[in-house]
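Researcher: Quick one. two chains, 227 residues in total.
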Amino acid sequence: LAKTTQPISMDSYEGQEVNITCSHNNIATNDYITWYQQFPSQGPRFIIQGYKTKVTNEVASLFIPADRKSSTLSLPRVSLSDTAVYYCLVVPRAAGNKLTFGGGTRVLVKP
Amino acid sequence: DTAVSQTPKYLVTQMGNDKSIKCEQNLGHDTMYWYKQDSKKFLKIMFSYNNKELIINETVPNRFSPKSPDKAHLNLHINSLELGDSAVYFCASSQIGQGRRDNEQFFGPGTRLTVL
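Model:
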């Protein structure tokens, strides 16, 4: 399984854009990049998934360079409620949906 | 209309006791999971069932026994509880084969287990 490395924590202010970069140097051809969000005292919540280039949904954008050895989750104009832990996962396509969570990035949004 | 529900939310018990945590999903998914999140916040998969059949079984002590009576339920029974079992246990469900959202799992609210 490809290991992921992401910053332990990040601080931001309301209204700013938050970018979290995740490294996954040994990602395999069939691996997808998936991001989850976890609020305190709640279970993780799927945010976005991508394979290459750029994916955007109503919550975030995911940028994946051509070599796919890293990815960047972009949260536009964060609010206080975006304070959470964000997990970057690399998931093999045929893994039986086995998710392996790392330490995540704790994002604190300040007023 | 909760999607994935777990009971109880909190469980405090003594070492050596046997306890169960129940999980139900009303999403019509075919796959369910149990995860353990320890005090350091690392979330690790324990088990996964697809259509009531065990498909993932990580290195978990055999004191932990999952049971899936039907596709909508996956219960976790723990025998002879130990201090190290204290953690938050999350149930999750998904539908395999969703294309771009293949790895989207829906998590329950968690059960905080404290073993004294």
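The two ends of chain B are 34 Å apart (CA to CA).
Researcher: Thanks, that's what I needed.
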